[in-house]
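JOB MANIFEST
job_type = single_chain_structure
chain_count = 1
residues = 71
[input]
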Amino acid sequence: MRKEYDFRKGKRGPAIPSPGKTRITIMLDDDVIEHFREAAEGLGTGYQTMINSVLRPLLLTRKAKSRRTSR
């Protein structure tokens, strides 16, 4: 390791960009977060990934319903 590092050209933010993802701040109830954290830990995945996987089917279902009613 070096004794000093030069961060003058450094940029804030994630080291590796995540295409198709946006970082946000969201307020959720404590019990909801705790549920997802425990469930995700049991499966060996991240709780944010698990929340996303629960929300995606809901989004797709609503989009499909919207297409059927607009015909």
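[summary]
The radius of gyration is 19 Å.
The first helix runs from residue 30 to 43.
exit_status = 0
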